[in-house]
Amino acid sequence: MIINSLDNVEVNLENGHKYALCDIKNGENIIKYGNPIGHAICDIKKGEHIHTHNMKTNLSGNIEYKYEPSYTPIVPAKNNKTFKGYLRENGDVGIRNEVWIVNTVGCVNKLASQIAAKTGARHFEHPFGCSQLGDDQRTTQLILKGLVNHPNAAGVLVLGLGCENNNIAEFKKVLGEYNPDRVKFLVAQECEDEVAEGVKIVEELKEYAAKFQRVDLPVSKLRIGLKCGGSDGYSGITANPLVGALSDKIISLGGSCVLTEVPEMFGAEHLLMQRCETKELFDKTVDLINNFKDYFTRHNQVIYENPSPGNKAGGITTLEEKSLGCVQKGGSSQVVDVLDYGDTLSKNGLSLLNGPGNDIVAITNLTAAGVHLILFTTGRGTPVGAPVPTVKVATNKTLAEKKKNWIDFDASPLLEGVSMDELCDKFTDYICEVASGEETKNEINNCREISIFKDGVVL
Questions:
Q1: pLDDT in tens, 21-51
Q2: Is there a single domain that holds both residue 49 and residue 108?
Q3: What's the mean pLDDT when you consider all of the chain?
Q4: Which of 11, 26, 315, 350 is 20 to 30 A off residue 135, Cα-Cα?
């Protein structure tokens, strides 16, 4: 069975790979999603398979950009949709009421694990917080700050060792003001039995967390992260457009969505730049793209060395093909903000967030930015999850049926005649259920990982 993929290629529903709808000459652009995804490196006959053997990327080097805004503002919709969340004392909203243990340094990972095992608190191991310098340590501190301040955590134990670069005294300078009822600190080197003391503190935090109860809140309070991983040839046809439709809907209701994975914008960045509300945001987006390209160059790496082997096996040939599918998760909303790594989401609408495409780094990045949950589209499948609920959206039915223990929602009915509006309404209802407490597969399986972007020396 074949589905028309808009232009001079079509996608086979059996394997997600591309086939020519017409003869394509050597050097001619190959079009998908209304844009070039590369060029033919030999003559291709109608019906022939198009992939790495006969197609190459068009991307090379840096690009000069011009601000040419082109978007239709999202029309505000009547906000009659609600979810049951937790209203915090400072006015923030959470969709979970957990106690988290946030380590200042990787040396106390196992102590955090022991405390969590005795109390039911959540902890997130990482190897950072010591032997880092300058901006590299600052990045670690900002991400940990975002975790400490996350509204899904009703209470937080900040656990340190005592001799690390990012010791608690130094971390407090970055953290700034905090509620001492909600955030408590423990230096392991300063007490006789750090696990017993940690358990005592967590029990106090659990008592504080118990004061909060779920209440009806408008969807405008939701903050949603947008992520893809293990993409395939269906990603830009099913799951990513579905997430884009939901993103537009949430934004029309006054909510917020965040799109990250900068290297997976390469080749499609012009579409996002056209949607920037102002020239200032356009300039920030240009810097977002070019700074990441410069990062690749500094490390003597090919800027466009993407997609991954799994992407290619799933039918994606070039980075622009991957990117043109990837950015669809951002729907058609105008871009209202550009966030740097470690920034916190502050505006309603669609924001772009600096950071790499690596799955665990990206979901940590989104979590630290303050999203309540993450919509994670996948065609190959992955069990990975963030500290926040991570909704896995399958691009194809085979994956959805095979990995029911990983997948939360199936976007493949779009290939079977179900309309986008119908499936988006169903998806929106499901997201509100998750926001109201229904556990995602990553929560059920206790797949909650963090990793922090690193760009510096180790002492």
A1: 999 999 999 999 989 999 999 999 999 999 9
A2: no
A3: 94
A4: 350
DSSP category for residue 334: P
192, with CB counted inside 10 A (0-12, 13-18, 19+), is exposed
Entry field: residues in the chain: 459
Residues 6+ apart with CB under 8 A from 177: none
Phi/psi class of residue 35: alpha, beta or left (left: φ > 0; alpha: ψ in -120 to 50)? beta
Q: Is the pLDDT of residue 439 over 80?
A: yes
Task: List pLDDT tens digits, range 232-287.
Answer: 889 999 999 999 999 999 999 999 999 999 999 999 999 999 999 999 999 999 99
Tokens of 79: 């906000």
Domain extent for 47: 2-56
Task: Verify that 14 and 154 share a domain, yes or no.
Answer: no
Tokens for 69? 């805004």
Same domain, 267 and 341: yes
What amino acid is encoded at 455 in this protein?
A: D
Q: Which residues contact 332 (CB under 8 A, 6 or more apart)?
A: 71, 72, 74, 244, 248, 275
Q: What is the CATH number of the domain that holds 327?
A: 3.40.50
Q: Is the dihedral of CA 335, 337, 339, 344 positive or negative?
A: negative
Q: In angstroms, what is the C-alpha Rg of the chain?
A: 23
